[in-house]
Specification:
Order of helices and strands of chain A: EEEHEEHEHHHEHEHEEHH
Helix content of chain A: 25-40%
Shape of chain A: globular
Strand content of chain B: under 5%
Structural class of chain A: alpha/beta
Distance between the termini of chain A: 49 Å
Radius of gyration of chain B: 25 Å
Number of helices of chain A: 9
Number of strands of chain A: 10
Distance between the termini of chain B: 49 Å
Largest interface: A-B, 46 and 40 residues
Number of strands of chain B: 0
Helix content of chain B: over 70%
Order of helices and strands of chain B: HHHHHHHHHHHHHHHHHHHH
Oligomer: heterodimer
Radius of gyration of chain A: 19 Å
Chain lengths: 263, 512
């Protein structure tokens, strides 16, 4: 199928995306993320972050709405959209009986990447993430951090244009977290779009260009840190309820409290 | 309410977990199945009591005396049950050492690890006894009904058997831990337990087939040749059998010996429990194993990559492979019976055809479950730019390829003397294996590979359909190989089974 890829403008566009399980998990979500942007999606537990990302990754089909990835309708052409995407969940999806080297070979095969090109990328990623000494050991004895790094290397071996990460830093030690953050920052500099959920607000504060706050399946605020501070300040003064804090944590808690999200 | 961290408190905790585990295993976690489960259980109890009634009646009518033949039969049946208990106990004891479910929590608390160990081993003995009691109780009840209540003493022997099996399992497991190390023990104990379970059953059945021409273990055990070889009735060997038949002195001795053995083993080994469990929490995590050192990626299309991955994972999981191949082992007795029953006019090799066809169907079903439902990275595969149809196709190819690797040497050996039979078997194998694979795909439900042994639970319908399809294709292939058109009739039934399975498949299996 000939599908043209829009390389310059919008990386991801969600329009009216709705997904209900026993209750609405995502409720008419509207979201636009520009190409090359580092976007952090924040929200309390059960806000609909993971469901949203799973819909974008093609793992869930929404009940309503549209999803566009670099101009490709991801619901009509899921395979073409998936070629541009990589998905990393908070629970690393790796095979215990494969080595990192074999895992990356498998992922490259899944995305039909030429073996020579994929191998060069794999070696680079393995070195970059400090997996070199374990590249030929089976993953079954690996720590959570090592497994997460293998999964992240797998997500990048096919050079995705849109990297979707669900809590990628959970369980990582400081050194591993720094390695992962460096790799992500380098990818963004290289033009990759990163959409990441995280509960570590400092990471979002320091790495993300724009931040979206989602609650009850809806986007309740969006913008740069300065824009969010202004939004909260304006709304808080109007209601006399803002905490007056300027950190992302203060802003996040104020926004979610307004929605009644943290009870 | 008992004091926290005391023996009764731990016992209550264990019993609650034990009951909920069993209940959820039987109902697959669906509460609406409770009435169905109760009805099925009552029907099962009634049916096995009916079977026991008809099995026991002829013996009771002939008069049961404590002669050598009766003692051999009772002791042989008891030993058979005990080997199954031992297999179950070895597996449970190993799991108790390696399971991390709540062990870290409890061992990190100020509660006594010895008490926990004692309760956990007692609950293993209870679980081991319960399972065998469910199966043996109809026969004990029937014997008590026909021959007198003294047979109820057999329940005491069952308790003794459970306790002794647990004691032996503990010694065997600790011996393996010491001799083989923590890393190898988990796998080896699983293999040992499977071999213990299968070995005696298959051995006795094979002997029964060759000596009496049928499956009856009782006929074999009471045959003149076996009785002649057995020790005299006064021998201590018959103590458990005498106890089961109502000799109270023997019962006290048997029960006492078993309980004291379990108590002693627990007392000696409980001090080591914390040490082994703690070591298992680090060492028993599957160790770092070097993969094959390859220095370059091999070129692969998506389909190649998927097939290669499936075959590598299967090859590297000896436990799954041994569990799967064990299914073939259980087909040996029927094969022997068929062989033994055939007249000289028909090639004895004909019996290979249904056995191979049925084994292939079962093997393919097991491998398909591992490959489809037991996918360890479903999100990764689902997020790849590959259609669901292509993914399934690659998995089917990997499964059928693996079955092919197993059966091809046998087919080639069969083709030398009997090419026609080999051709019939090959066609039957292809159809049966494809059917088993398709049924598992229709009923797929995401699960961990490690739950392979419980794969029947989410869908007993799939298990039933898979077994029925394999049996019917085996029958059709055997009849086709024998040159009778009746094969078509059986094949139609097999196709109807597949159509039925397809019609009742859960629709949600086809979600993304």
């Amino acid at each position: 199928m000939d599908v043209s890829v829009n390389t310059t403008l919008t990386a991801l566009e969600l329009k009216g995306v709705t997904k209900c399980f026993d209750r609405p998990a995502v409720d008419g979500l509207e979201l636009t993320i520009q190409a090359g942007e580092f976007y952090a999606l924040l929200g309390p537990n059960g806000a609909g972050k993971t469901t949203t990302l799973r819909i974008v990754a093609g793992l869930l089909r929404p009940d309503a709405g549209s999803v566009s990835v670099y101009g490709i309708d991801a619901l009509k052409n899921p395979i073409e959209a998936k070629r541009l995407i990589a998905w990393v969940s908070d629970e690393p999806m790796i095979y215990e009986k494969l080595t990192p080297f074999e895992y990356l070979e498998f992922v490259a095969g899944l995305w039909s990447i030429d073996a020579v090109t994929a191998e060069a990328r794999a070696r680079e990623l393995i070195d970059w993430l400090g997996l070199g000494p374990h590249a030929h050991e089976r993953c079954q004895g690996f720590s959570k951090g090592m497994r997460q790094k293998v999964a992240l290397a797998g997500a990048m071996v096919h050079e995705p244009r849109l990297l979707i990460l669900d809590e990628p830093l959970t369980g990582l030690d400081a050194g591993s977290a720094r390695q992962v953050k460096d790799v992500l920052a380098e990818r963004v500099r290289g033009g990759v779009t990163v959409v990441m959920t995280t509960h570590i607000l400092e990471v979002a504060e320091h790495m993300a260009e724009r931040i979206g706050v989602i609650d009850k399946g809806r986007l309740i605020a969006e913008g740069t840190l300065a824009e969010l501070q202004r939004q909260v300040g304006t709304r808080g003064r109007a209601r006399g309820s803002a905490s007056g804090g300027t950190s992302l944590e203060d802003i996040f808690l104020d926004l979610v409290a307004e929605e009644g999200g943290l009870g | 309410m008992s004091q926290p961290a005391t023996l009764p408190w731990f016992a209550r905790h264990e019993l609650r977990l034990f009951w909920r585990d069993w209940f959820s295993m039987l109902t697959a976690g669906k509460r609406r199945r409770e009435p169905v489960l109760l009805a099925v259980f009552l029907i099962f109890v009634a049916v096995i009591h009916l079977v026991a009634y008809f099995v026991v009646r002829p013996f009771a009518e002939a008069g049961i005396t404590a002669d050598k033949a009766t003692l051999v039969t009772v002791a042989g049946s008891a030993f058979l049950s005990w080997t199954l208990m031992l297999a179950q106990a070895i597996e449970s004891v190993t799991r108790a050492f390696y399971s991390r479910a709540d062990l870290d929590l409890i061992l990190s608390s100020p509660a006594s690890a010895r008490r926990l160990f004692a309760v956990r081993m007692a609950s293993i003995a209870l679980g081991t006894t319960m399972l065998t009691t469910v199966l043996a109780s109809p026969f004990i009840n029937a014997l008590a009904y026909f021959d007198g209540p003294h047979w109820l003493a057999a329940y005491g022997v069952l308790v003794a058997m459970g306790a002794f099996a647990t004691a032996v399992a503990l010694v065997v497991t600790v011996f393996m831990l010491r001799a083989l190390g923590l890393r190898r023990t988990r796998l080896v104990s699983q293999v040992v337990s499977a071999v213990v379970a299968a070995g005696f059953v298959i051995g006795v059945q094979a002997a029964a087939i060759f000596s009496t021409g049928n499956f009856s273990r009782i006929a074999f055990l009471s045959s003149e040749s076996v009785v002649a070889l057995a020790p005299e009735p006064g021998s201590l060997v018959w103590l458990p059998a005498r106890a089961a038949m109502g000799d109270l002195g023997a019962l006290v001795l048997v029960l006492g010996t078993a309980l004291v053995s379990l108590g002693l083993v627990m007392a000696v080994l409980s001090a080591k429990f914390e040490e082994y469990a703690a070591a298992a929490s680090t060492e028993a995590e599957p160790g770092r194993r070097k993969g094959r050192q390859r220095h370059s990626f091999r070129p692969a299309t998506t389909m190649h990559a998927l097939r290669r991955k499936e075959l590598t994972l299967l090859r590297r999981d000896p436990w799954l492979l041994s569990q799967t191949l064990m299914q073939i082992l259980y087909l040996l007795p029927p094969a022997l019976l068929l062989w033994h029953s055939f007249d000289g006019g028909v090639s004895v090799l004909l019996v290979m055809v249904p056995v191979l066809v049925m084994a292939s169907g079962q093997l393919a079903g097991g491998l398909a479950w591992i490959s489809v439902s037991g996918e360890d990275a479903p999100d990764l595969v689902a997020s790849a730019p590959v259609s669901a149809r292509a993914l399934i196709a690659a998995k089917i190819q990997a499964v059928l390829g693996s079955v092919g690797v197993v059966v091809t040497p046998i087919l080639l050996a069969l083709a030398i003397p009997e090419p026609r039979l080999a051709a019939a078997a090959a066609i039957g194998i292809a159809i049966s294996a494809t059917s088993g694979t398709m049924i598992q795909i229709w009923f797929r439900a995401q699960a961990r590979r490690s739950t392979f042994r419980r794969r029947q639970i989410p869908s007993r319908l799939a298990t039933l359909a898979e077994a029925l399809s394999s049996i019917l294709w085996a029958g059709a292939a055997a009849l086709a190989a024998a040159g009778t058109w009746f094969a078509l009739f059986i094949a139609v039934f097999a196709l109807m089974t597949l159509a039925g399975a397809w019609a009742i498949r859960p629709r949600e299996a086809y979600a993304v």
